[in-house]
Please model this.
Amino acid sequence: MKIAILSHDSNIYSTRRLREAGEQRGHEMYVIDYLRCYMNITSHKPMVIYGGKPLEGFDAVIPRIGASQTFYGTAVVRQFEMMDVFTANESQAISRSRDKLRCLQLLAREGIGLPVSGFAHSTKDIDGLINTVGGAPLVIKLLEGTQGIGVVLTETYQAAKSVIEAFRGLNANILVQEFIQEAKGADLRCFVINERVVASMKRQALEGEFRSNLHRGGTAEKVKLTPEERSTAVRAAKAMGLKVAGVDLLRSNHGPVVMEVNSSPGLEGIEKATGTDVPGKIIEFLEKIATKGNSRDRIQG
Model:
C-alpha cells in the first residue's frame, strides 16, 4: 500500500512511529506537510499538489492535524476524500471533535455520560450559568484550549464569577463544568481503533494539580477498564464518526464521564505506558479497510 501521513512535523514521535510501523509491514510511507499542500478543486479531476507535483496513487491517508490548523488541515483531508482515497479519520469527524461544544452536544444526544456542563454568551447570565452547573468548585475551559492550557479550577463562587467575567471580557468562548472531585486528579485515556479499545492508560496529575495531561508533568500507567468504561469510549468515538481516537474519561460517582474525544491522539505516552504497538494496529486497520472498495462507497454505507 501507498500511505500518506499528513503531519506538519516529520520528526515528532507519533509521525516517526507511524512511518516505521508502515515500513515494517512493507508499505510505502510518505510524510506530507499538509500546510504545504495546495489544491486544484475541480469536478472531474480534483488534485492535491505538493512540491509542485500532484499526489497520486495513494491507498490511504493518516491525518495528524494540529488543533490550531484544523480549518486548512481538514480541507486537505476532504480533498483526498474527493479523490476516493481512504482516510483513517474523515474530515467531518475531525471537525466535530475539534469543536468542544459541538462534541459535548453530540455525545449528550447519544446518551453518553458527561460532566454537567454549561455554556452562555452574556456576562449578565453568569449567576444562572454557575447555578445550572451546580455551583463551585467548577472547571472553566477555553473552547480553543489544548493539552490542559486554558483550563481553570475555581474553588469558590466568586472566583468562578471573576474568571468567567475575565474570559468573556476577552471575548473568549468558554465551557463551565462540574468538578469531578472523586477522580482525584486522574483520568483514563482509551485508544479506540475501528470501534475497539486497543490500549488504555491511567494518567495521574502531579500533587496539587488537577490536570492530568502528560505535557503538564502527569504520570501514566497501564489500566484495566471496566466493561462500562470500554463501552463508553467506543460509543464516544462512534458518535464523532472517528475510526481512530483517544477518548478521555473520568471515573465519577455516577459512572464514567467523557471529558474529550481526540482525533489525533499522541502515541508516545500510551505506547510507553502499555507496551502496545499502537501504530502497528493503526496500519493493520488500514490494511483491512482501505482496500475494500472506494471511499465514497464506505462513506455512503
